[in-house]
Amino acid sequence: MSKIIQFTDVTLRDGEQTPGVSFSVREKTTIASMLEKLGVNCIEAGFASSSAGDMEAIDRIARQSRSNTTVCSLARCKVEDIDAAAKALTNASKPKIHIIIGCSDIHLKYKFGFTPEQLLSRIKVMIRYAADTGMQIQFSAEDATRADREFLRSVYLTALDSGANIINITDTVGYSLPDEFESLVRSARGWVGDDVLLSVHCHNDLGLATANSLAGIKGGADMVECTLNAMGERAGNASLEEVAVALRVRADLMDFRDTIKAKHIYPVCKAVATYSGLSVGHNKPIVGDNCFTHQSGIHQNSVLKNPSTYELFNPNLIGRVSNELMLSRLSGRHGFEERLKELGYELSRDELDDAFARFMQLAEFRKTVSDKEISALAQSYTSKVTHHTYTLKNYQSISGSNAITTATVNIGMAGGDVLKAAAGDGPVDAVFRAIEEATGISFKMVSLDVKAVDEGKDSLCEVRLIMEKDGRRFIGRGINTDMIAASAFAYMNALNRAVLVLNSFKEDDNEED
Fold first, then answer.
1. Is 401 helix (H, G, I), strand (E, B) or coil?
2. Sheet holding 444-452, edge to edge
3. Which pTM was predicted?
């Protein structure tokens, strides 16, 4: 019988470490629900000790998760981290604490100032402490691929002897080549035995994360850690969609099974792209817009005769269809709600009422509303920051070719509403300046992108922007039929994220990757 490969999704933890990305609690719980439908075995929901927001998100995901899904929190080899992780996971059916510490000579010398003996002692004490919680314990040797092999063996055996259940091999800076990574995993399998769950976690600094993950599976790994859309620090992590589809397309060489329900890949990848504010590259494998686009006449002719001439797999495999469902005002509320559920979105009753009213307005104007637009409507609710500090109650903008462009905004905040006006270089800039006047908070604008959600000049408008404050970047997103309104909502979205993060983030120079 084929070996079953488990998938741990680390989008909500490692993926959130992508510069500029900060998921709200609501976004994290929505993504977690989608991940369960996708069929991942474990969700690494966050880093509990890093912020109150992560603690809350892990707790909520733990409460909502099904009994067959493991929920995990990262922790450094520190008592306070382990305590925070255990607290956040109290209500999980299958909790796991993921303990990580750097084990290469570079990390020992420059990051910790530890001797090898001191590191082994720290691992022993902290793993034993964590094991006393009764939760499953995963141990990761950070920067394992640059560590001394014999010392790495001692590290893993010490972790196992102290109570770890899972051993993880981490290619933290994407250093390894596939053949040497496969060799390392084979060695580790020999060290820990066949009964220990062996996991791999690969970064993409040399563009080899997917190749190394597959090599690790061939070398004897039982579990692979990935992110959606290859998100993560620097160049990102191994892409879940790439690894999962590769196992299916090349089943002739890799006789493995998994629990991934591939038809959910495309919808969840698109949702994560929206929530993160990071567009998927047009040439991104599996889910990029160009993956099934053929411009060459020779290619087009061949594909029309047989798609397999230039397409490795049917796009339907990952839930990518060309003839998506179109709803109209005649579809009714039930049809709208059912389509939302099929797309993976769960809204409250009040949100459904509001979303349906907005859908009917679109349907009256557009006649038909596409899945992309329905998803955009749903995401405008799930993208909201849970705890609003500021609310845009209304705005007005005046502009013209021979007039000074001005904007007036009414911002709701603690202590009452504030009405402010400002002039700007265009209506969007004027609205942003008026918001700054009202809140007293200014940002450096890094980028602002405007695009239509679907084809046609009457499509919904989506605005994504990146703003910088105190050396940190924050992504905002807004949806509306009006570009100025969408821009204003995007600005408020980023503003509230910034306030939430800057008020709760705990700075620590020894944070693990």
1. coil
2. 444-452, 461-469, 472-480
3. 0.83
Q: How far is CA 339 from the centre of its chain?
A: 23
DSSP at 19: T
Tell me the C-alpha distance between 431 and 216, whole Å. Answer: 52
3-class DSSP assignment, residue 373: helix
Check: CB of residue 475 under 8 Å from CB of residue 276: yes
- Give the three-class secondary structure for 80: helix
Q: What 3 state SS string does 14-54 have?
A: CHHHCCCCCCCHHHHHHHHHHHHHHCCCEEEEECHHHCHHH
pLDDT in tens, 419-465: 999 999 999 999 999 999 999 999 999 999 998 887 766 678 889 99
- The C-alpha atoms of residue 157 and residue 427 are separated, in whole angstroms, by 63
Would you state the structure tokens that stand for residue 162, as one six-digit string?
């102290």
* Extended beta strands in 460-500, E state: 461-469, 472-480
State the Cα–Cα distance between residues 188 and 209, nearest whole angstrom: 19
Q: In the CATH hierarchy, which fold is given to the domain comprising 3-276? A: TIM Barrel (3.20.20)
pLDDT at residue number 502: 75
3-class DSSP assignment, residue 416? strand
Cα–Cα nearest to 108, from 168, 154, 75, 167 = 154
Handedness of CA 223, 227, 229, 233 (dihedral sign): negative
- Taking the CB of residue 322, how many other CB atoms lie within 10 A of it? 7
3-class SS of residue 261: coil
Helix (H, G, I), strand (E, B) or coil at 75: strand
Instruction: Supply the DSSP symbol for 2.
Output: P
Helix 25-38 crosses helix 265-276 at what angle (to 10 degrees)? 170
Query: Is the domain 391-504 a CATH 2.60.40.10 member?
Result: no
Q: Strand ranges (DSSP E) for 24-182?
A: 42-46, 70-76, 94-102, 136-142, 166-171
Return the residue matching tokens 């993976």. Answer: 344
SS3 32: helix
| Strand ordering across the sheet containing 391-398 | 391-398, 406-413, 416-423
Q: At what angle do helices 371-382 and 349-366 cross, to 10 degrees?
A: 150
Instruction: Give the pLDDT means over successive 10-residue stretches in the chain (513 positions).
Output: 94 92 89 96 97 93 94 98 98 98 96 96 98 98 98 98 98 98 98 97 98 98 98 96 97 95 93 86 89 66 76 88 69 85 83 90 79 83 69 92 91 92 94 96 92 77 90 87 92 88 54 44
* Position 14, amino acid: D
| Enclosing H/E stretch for 369 | strand 368-369
